[in-house]
Protein 1
Amino acid sequence: MMTGLLEGLVISHLGQGIAVEHDEKIVLCQTLRKLETVAVGDRVLWTQSSPDQGRIEEILPRRSLLMRPSRNGKTRPVAANIDTVFVVFAIEPYCDFLLIDQYLAICENRNIDAALVLNKTDLPQSDAIEKELLDYEHLGYALYRVSATAASGLEQLKQALKDQVSILAGQSGVGKSSLTNAIIPDKDLKTNTVSATTKHGRHTTTAATLYHLDQGGDLIDSPGVAIFGLAGLSEQQLAYGYREFQPLIEQCQFKNCRHLVDKGCAVRPAAETGAISMTRYQRFLKLREKMPTAFI
């Protein structure tokens, strides 16, 4: 083992390197070529080359990892060691339940908890949406109703973020950035500190950044990432990603059941009889069609 190895936390990707926090100080690090891509939230071992510069030598084991699609059908890490993904959605632009299901399916397969955040509760809600939300609550997903503009429900959300590593996910226009600014009022100040400390001019707005919350816990803000993608999931994992399917999958007659019109399938009849949500089942079929063909 190398001498002089220090442990640090990756808090941001900057144009010229990676910002690593150690002992409440931030150091700009390069990475060893042979290392896989380092993600925000990674715990790493690094060596110091000058007072405010270093080199990442090793990525410590991760407890979870979120990926996003990259070029040529490959994937890239977005953030590591996340405990909970908070899926943010709103009545406007529209409630994208297909995207919500996609996030939840990924979390079910990635050892990450998931919770739902309905933003813009100052707008009128529809009965159809309330019915869908009830399905998620019955499945055990926590639902937080907030309004960043009216500053309502924020205290409950802040409590939920306490003492864990979280990330907000959701399509653009749902108010993720206004929520982040409400949760981290001094966000710009903290961001500028990272840029100044690492002598790296402007902090890019698309870079994922980890912020320490005043009440305890960390929030990874990843403004440039709306979609994590299904590229890393197999067809079986997608089905497992629907929490209500999990006990039924074991009852299917065949191990490779696709839950379409397969003989002895337990999932489809459960949706047809109303034992599980038919709209969620239909969205599963849609997501299945959207999957990269290599995984089906």
Protein 2
Amino acid sequence: MVKKELINSDRLVRLFCELVAIDSPSYHEEIMCATLKERLETLGLAVTQDDAGRHYHVSYGNLLGFLPGSAGDPAKVAGSRPAKEESVERSQLPPLLFCCHMDTVVPAIGKKAMVHEDGTITSDGSTVLGADDVAGIVSILEALQILQEHHLPHRPLEILFTMSEEVYSRGMLYFDMTKLRSQEGYTLDLTGPVGTAAYAAPSIVPFTVVCKGRAAHAGFAPESGVHAIAMAGAAISRLPLGHVDEGTTLNIGGIEGGKATNIVPEQCTVTGEVRSLSHKTAMEQLALTRHIFEEEAARFGGEIEFSHYIGCKAYATELSQPVVRRFEKACEELGFTPSLVKTFGGSDNNCLAQGNFQGIVLANAMNRCHSCEEYTTVEELIRSTALTLALMCSDE
């Protein structure tokens, strides 16, 4: 059984602080990508970099590393000494994938990790911390380092570090899934206590509605105009904003229009999104939203342009799958309480799950993400690393 005592906590925290200090907002992860590629190669992985970035006019892409399975060296393994035949079997098991993203949300320039006396790690308050997703990255890198140092038997491993996940997995959009040897694995990209994992996530469908009316002088002839903002407001008032049902939400996030206080606005742009654990339901709600805007446009004597795109597509991994059972066993061996949940956030696992890939998303020591109040703790980083290491060394 893997022991938490194998983890070098000082090295883990030092690496976390080093990687946090690298500016890596979406579409600007050049230095982070080069740094991680070098570290993976130093740890003995064969690493390839794709050209996904060319679609966004950058010179880097997604990183994919492979480490063959190892029977380990029973004479050098720290702690327990597994039987040689058991180790050989482990090294010949199918590979597992571990996935994290390289980018962070903004504000992300000039990040600095501050380690407090109680073990909490925060930014200085002017930026996000970047634990989303640096906490996952260091969990993987430290686990790989321990495999090497302690000659632990482990199964074949694939490591995928993706670009620009925070903008609806733009890196994974151009990742060639046929390059993967794994058919199952773990994405480290979830808030909550370590031991929590998401087995289901929603479709996220952003949309834009351009409401078109007719301009007129607001003082002399307002009745000759078609008020685009009023049109948009009438439609929005009919929408079931918030929780449509227990698995679906609808939100209007922005509205912009008008040129001057004395002009009836001829155009108004509305942005929003639908999220649903059912892709079918998400698309039905999107169609209903469009229909309501079309009805109000017709009533006002205007028109609309409606557009949308699929940010990510819903999936649900069966709880009977080995990828789930393996996670539960690893948690129990480490003394963690496993908790399987549904999430309303997307991740790269949404993309992975669209093929035959079976995966879940692990909580990885990040809290209050997407805010300048983001934080992690030394203890949670250790727990995340221990769970990652246990999964890498699993014999199932």
Protein 3
Amino acid sequence: MDNNSIFIEKLRSSGLRPTKQRLEICKLLFNRKKTFHFTINDISKMLKNKTYKKISLATIYNTVHSFKKKGYLKEISVNSDKSYFDTNTSSHHHFLDVNTNELIDLNNEDVDNIKIKKNLPGKKIKSIEVLVKIENNN
């Protein structure tokens, strides 16, 4: 199976018709070896630089959220108006560099066990993911 077939299947399994624009988005997100963190605006700028064609923010937003809903992406909310998306959907921690707005993976083994002392009735902990905000030391 060639890469285009893989991307087309990923789009279809997410409930999306594989248009040229969505295929470009899919390639940008998943045709890489390393974890990729991004915002919707990041993707928009990268696509504009790569394809020299404008892909609407609505298309990017809907495609990314369809991938998230299907489980291909994880959303990391850093505050009430900013979310990053991560191609690594496993449970893991992050640094957020507040000077550069870069989200950086933090390995689970770099964080000691975390104890949660409060239980909510009728609820169980699904996962614990730590977001550590860092800044320049000056």
